[in-house]
Amino acid sequence: MTFELFAEGKRTRLRLTHTGLETFPAIAAFAKANFLAGWTELVGANLKAFVETRRSEKLVGDREIAATRLFDAPRELVWKVWTDPEHIGKWWGPNGFSTTTHSMDLRPGGAWRYVMHGPDGRDYRNRVTYLEVVKPERLVYNHGGDEDTEPVNHHVTVTFREQDGKTRVDMRMLFVSAEARSHVIETYGAFEGLKQHFGRLEAYLKKV
After folding, report:
1. SS3 for 124?
2. Which range of residues forms the domain containing residue 37?
């Protein structure tokens, strides 16, 4: 079997070639028909749906970063591990980071103060101020550095939606300017970090 991927603008065309069936003449016709149907369903339907609904990280306009991921877990659980200090410290942040929560007041006007410990030994102090808390559907907050760190401020909206027994999480990060967004991407690797952030959440949900 050979898989070939061809870039076509913002899309990707996949060509799959399955050879060797002709070595079994007695079942060649049957095998070709059934393998064609199977691969068409697997690639044309299942893979397409998986890619389009499970994962999407993208730049929106010139001030936003957005991400979507479909998690194989109930919404109440996803909400809990996102908002409970006992859980969130075990997965929050990019690969190699750990998180210590100093306080979390999960209500409009409340704040979450935490420190992210980088793999290089550096600590990053953060402060989240909640604007909306609608359990288990929606979180809206302002995210910035604490007093003694660089103020990387942005507005975040996270929604949790039920989808066929799973949970779709949509996260949008709005920065004050295009320059501010570029700064966090180039300086802190925010775009790749967001992918890893969701990857760690997915792995943690499988454990709990």
Report:
1. strand
2. 2-51
